[in-house]
Design goal:
Helices cover about 35% and strands about 20% of the residues. The chain is an alpha/beta fold. The structure holds 2'-monophosphoadenosine-5'-diphosphate. 2'-monophosphoadenosine-5'-diphosphate binds near residues 130, 131, 134, 190 and 199.
Length: about 280
């Protein structure tokens, strides 16, 4: 049997940390497989899938800008990918090419790891943003039975997303946040605000429910201004790095037949890499 080969497909792809992540697990479990970055321009996507089988790919990850475009090249997508309108993981099953979305598993797996018990009696979440990361967060929290209020600079986008997900999810403008925080058990930032080089996120936490957990999907820097302010107020905080680690678990399992563990060592490896490559992180 030939060694399984997996890819991460994007354009550009050179800065992806996924090869480091999967490379760590391949070595840790002594698996003779590979995980290779593949740069494919949008115009060449059809050719990539046209030669998929003869190239011998086992499957792989999909990132920007192909998460939606790959769907037309697959035999089937899973329920999460259908609801999120994006595929980030591809694998083979019974001769078919399947697309799934594990970003929501990354979101919730990280939260469960870094704030165990966060959902004990948790009923309400406030999610800031309405882009791709907000979709993954909203889907995950809806699956866990929370009622989700989405707040976004462009309120109409949040309202449309809430209507798309249903289940009592609501959309609001950003100035509604202060009023929603008193009832919130979880506050999540999915906007790019607070990221290194971006403007800070300006949220007044004084009305946030005591005991609420605060989660920022941003991970450069690891502790954003939001998390720093939340920690100073005694809230439990969760950074976004683990989303990247946890979303990778299912793909690795599909391609290499082993459920990998998200270890502290792996987290440290990525933190060191971010610090080495990002001055100021
Ligand atoms: P991702 O896929 O990573 O979630 P995205 O789809 O570009 O990224 O979404 C970015 C989110 O950050 C959006 O909710 C965006 O708000 P708009 O829908 O109004 O654009 C939000 N965002 C980005 N810059 C912002 C800013 N300066 N102030 C407020 N929200 C901002």
């Amino acid at each position: 049997m030939t060694a399984p080969r997996a890819f991460v497909l994007g354009h550009p792809i050179a800065h992806s940390r996924s090869p480091m992540l999967h490379g760590y697990w391949l070595e840790r479990y002594g698996i003779a497989g590979s995980y290779e970055p593949v740069d494919v321009a949008p115009a060449d996507l059809g050719a990539f899938f046209g030669s998929f089988r003869e190239t011998g790919w086992t499957g792989g990850n999909v990132t920007v800008p192909h998460k939606l475009a790959v769907i037309g090249h697959l035999d089937r997508i899973d329920a999460a990918a259908a609801k999120l309108g994006a595929v980030n993981t591809i694998w083979r099953e019974d001769g078919q090419l399947i697309g799934g979305n594990t970003d929501w598993l990354g979101f919730i797996g990280n939260l469960d790891e870094l704030a165990p018990g966060w959902d004990r009696e948790a009923g309400r979440a406030v999610v800031l943003g309405a882009g791709g990361a907000a979709r993954a967060a909203a889907y995950a929290l809806g699956e866990r039975g929370l009622s989700v209020a989405l707040c976004n600079r462009t309120a109409s986008t949040a309202e449309e997303l809430a209507a798309h997900f249903g289940g009592g999810m609501t959309g609001h403008p950003m100035d509604a946040v202060a009023g929603l925080l008193a009832e919130a058990d979880l506050l999540v930032n999915t906007t790019s605000l607070g990221m290194l080089g971006k403007p800070p996120l300006d949220v007044d936490l004084s009305s946030l429910k005591p005991g609420a957990t605060v989660y920022d999907v941003v991970y450069v820097p690891l502790e954003t201004g939001l998390l720093k302010a939340a920690r100073a107020r005694g809230h439990r905080t969760v950074d976004g790095l683990g989303m990247l680690l946890h979303q990778a678990v299912d793909g690795f399992r599909h391609w290499f037949g082993q459920t990998p563990e998200v270890t502290r060592e792996l987290r440290s490896l990525l933190i060191d890499d971010i610090r080495a490559k990002t001055p100021g992180a």
